[in-house]
Amino acid sequence: MNCQEALRLLYEVIDNEASEIDAGKVQQHLKRCKHCFELYRLESSIQNFINERLKDGNPTGSLSTLRRKVILKLDEIDGQGAIEECPPSI
Questions:
Q1: Does the reported pTM lie above 0.90?
Q2: Contact 30, 2 (CB under 8 A)
Q3: What range defines the domain where residue 56 resides?
């Protein structure tokens, strides 16, 4: 699995919506690719933060602002194009 394939499935893995096979392939890729692992770590942290804030069913105004900013940033990242191969690990 290359970076483009892993990143395409990343949000399904984070949301526990990926098949076991796909999730396993992504996890194997994340073990080898520092760049994708760091992106996974960031995105899953954001998702966990938002989920924790939404547990009480009453999000605050600041959470709504954060969500908007996150969505805008993700849209910006998506607009930059897909990564074709793993950057070199240091």
A1: no
A2: no
A3: 3-78
Q: Report the distance separating Cα 23 and Cα 20, nearest Å.
A: 5
Residue-wise pLDDT tens for the chain (90 aa)?
Answer: 899 999 999 989 998 899 999 999 999 999 999 999 999 999 998 888 888 877 766 656 676 777 788 888 887 777 755 444 555 544
Tokens linked to 28: 């194997």
Tell me if 1 sits within 8 A of 25, measured CB to CB: yes
> Is residue 89 domain-resident?
no
Does some domain include residue 20?
Answer: yes
Q: Is residue 9 part of a domain?
A: yes
Domain count, the chain: 1
